[in-house]
Amino acid sequence: MNRYYYDLHLHSCLSPCAEDDMTPANIAGMGSLCGLQLMALTDHNSCGNCRAFLSACRQYGIVGVPGMELTTAEEIHLVCLFPTLEAAEGFEAEVRTQRFPIKNKPAVFGNQLYMDAEDKVLGEEPNLLIPATKLDLEAGTALALAHGGAAFPAHIDRPSNGIIGILGNLPEKPFFPTLELNDPENRDQYVRDYGLEGRRMLCSSDSHRLESMRDASQWIELDDEPYSSQRVRDALICLLREGMV
Fold it and tell me: What is the CATH number of the domain that holds 88?
């Protein structure tokens, strides 16, 4: 078992609410400066920049994880992480069919840029990525699991798009053994107020700007022997899936 300092909720310039300098290469570089060892890219309803992100992470010796922040039909944000790029892209292909074809207005919502690992713009997503999809919480979670991934509710301590803010509490099904807090200071209060004893609590930044990326403070222990980046990703997904029903 080894300790990994992580940030498992980050947005690139493909998310319209993220700044344009949140390129895959810049995120990986800033993560290295922050002392992070394990990072996930989780753009809104898309994995389109994950390939470039994984490549950029390799250049900095960081284990990159492909992911997505899925917006469910209830307007709940669900972080979905995958062990391989192929699994993430397969998941995205199905999510794409569940998105509403609303044209983006870059002047209003922001650009949605596809990038390569060297910060070259490859294209722009024409349809707005931030609206809710047709997938409800159960269907979105089941779809992530079907593609070999894991899912957990994002920033449960925020009223906007947080599962508790929207539903009032956590549902019995799907059962989430892992939850994400935006502010680690809220851990004890949420455990006490919502009966979350025994749940795994992750704290990630949900960064949309380079300057909001956090120095290494949150860590997770993973069984990474024999070591490889793929082994670390596999161990992470296995841990996050443990207890999911």
Answer: 3.20.20.140
